[in-house]
Amino acid sequence: SFYYGNFPAGFLWGVGSSAYQTEGAWDKDGKGPSIWDAFTHKKGKVFRNETGDSACDGYYKVKDDIQLLKELKVNHYLFSISWPRIMPTGIKTEQLNEKGIQFYNDTINSLLENNITPIVSLYHWDLPQVLQEKYGGWQNISMINYFNDYANLCFEKFGDRVKHWITFSNPWAVAEKGYETGEHAPGLKLGGCGAYRAAHHIIKTHAKVWHSYNNTWRSEQQGMVGISLTTGWGEPVDPHNQTDRDAAERYIQFHLGWFANPIYRGDYPEVMKNYVGRKSAQQGLGTSRLPTFSVQEKTYIKGTSDFLGIGHFSTRYVLQKSPPLPQAASYHTDPDLAELVDPNWPAPGPKWLYSVPWGFRRLLNFIKTQYGNPLIYVTENGVSDKMQCTQLCDDWRIQYLKGYINEILKALKDGVNVKGYTAWSLLDQFEWNKGFSESFGFYHVDFKNKNKPRYPKASADYYRSIISANGFPNSREVENWQQKAMDTCSTTHQLLAADSLITHMEKVTEIVLPTVFTLCILISIILLIVYLRNHT
């Protein structure tokens, strides 16, 4: 049932984005190439071969986008720094890009001038391409020191003003999609080993950066360093069946626990070690495909998070399923489970994103119990649409936000220590291997228009109402918000339609006028030649 009430005073409301998805300017002002630049420039890697070369042109529209943040009345903005924009090769001793550093200084200063707190992710997937080519990226242990140098540069340049740092955003996707399935950059299919090795190095890197901040910067800057982990919730198909309950537990441990357990408890989850170890032995391997931490490393890693960032989008029903032997080594077959969905769950966008709000409360309570009730910031939560035409009146996104945010309110009543919520995302942006075919934004971006104007959707108006009320005061008021939001979006739709027509006319004019002008000149020349011939 829906719970009416307010969030605690001081609860933080925000919205997020990432560098590669929004900035564009992929090779401008001294920026080096990232693995996503290289990946998207290969044909067949991204839907319709689209790229983030210009994305939302966020590099040139910082002030415009901060105006949107002010319109939304958010307290904070979560964005990422592009490693190759400030360190083109990824190696500090080789080259620093002052223009890139200045760009992020200007962004941070503009946010603070508008009373918006910056929450900064050091890594949202755009590894410098040079490090991938030279060392194999996250497969190589040398990334630990290179990333630590980069993180310390960020603390040095921006840490006097940035007090919330995220080391990695959704490292699960970096490891699984980058090094297991190859769906994401760098596009490697290192079945059964690649994802585990990448994750191992990322966890060690996270710990090293946390200790660097703790030892060198914390006393002076008084900030916090955490990690952002994205996970679904796994619900047993039959909650009375122990086998299904165990399978659901494995689902969570192979997603969230893979990274959270070492950081909060000192090692990989026992169930991961057991299952991957057993499968490795069955495959004739002498050691487990899941790497091990030494005793010193376990101690070093444990406790290296001042807060836990949580990204959450959807839920699955889970049951036990043992694949037939023999099987190829794969992260996906290691946990022996199958995922199901309820056909009645709303799925407004892509096939993976079903709206199941109650799973969020269960996930938050699991974290409270499993990891000692850590300080939590929700760092990503939202829903995309996959409409062929522009949808500004996004009623389904309003329903999604209403349901999921309400489950956070319930979790707070359960005693979960959630301090802030970040909706995903500010703008429609480049969605990785899906290109521009999926749209998560509160603001529609007209990518066909060279100026890439932004238009608010109904959900932007609705989210602003939640922020202003700091929750859900009563049913009548909440219903009024939705009606008002839908009325406003109808007007914006008319504006978008008019602007699109003007853009179309401009394009036609750009093509037609030069063509007509050229034809006139050609006809004039022909007539002149005929005239001269007749008079000679």
From TrEMBL:
Keyword set includes Cell membrane: no
Keyword field: Glycosidase, Hydrolase, Membrane, Transmembrane, Transmembrane helix
InterPro entries named among the record's database cross-references: GH, GH_1_N_CS, Glyco_hydro_1, Glyco_hydro_1_AS
Coiled coil: none
Organism annotation: Galbula dea
Record protein name field: Cytosolic beta-glucosidase
The gene coding this protein: Lctl
TM region positions: 511-532
Reactions catalysed according to its record: beta-D-galactosyl-(1<->1)-sphing-4-enine + H2O = sphing-4-enine + D-galactose; beta-D-galactosyl-(1<->1')-N-octadecanoylsphing-4-enine + H2O = N-octadecanoylsphing-4-enine + D-galactose; a beta-D-xylosyl-(1<->1')-N-acylsphing-4-enine + cholesterol = cholesteryl 3-beta-D-xyloside + an N-acylsphing-4-enine; beta-D-glucosyl-(1<->1)-sphing-4-enine + H2O = sphing-4-enine + D-glucose
Pfam families per UniProt: Glyco_hydro_1
Family: Belongs to the glycosyl hydrolase 1 family. Klotho subfamily.
Gene Ontology biological process terms, A to Z: carbohydrate catabolic process
GO molecular function list: beta-glucosidase activity; galactosylceramidase activity; glucosylceramidase activity
Database matches in PANTHER family: GLYCOSYL HYDROLASE (PTHR10353), LACTASE-LIKE PROTEIN (PTHR10353:SF336)
Residues forming the catalytic site: E380 (nucleophile)
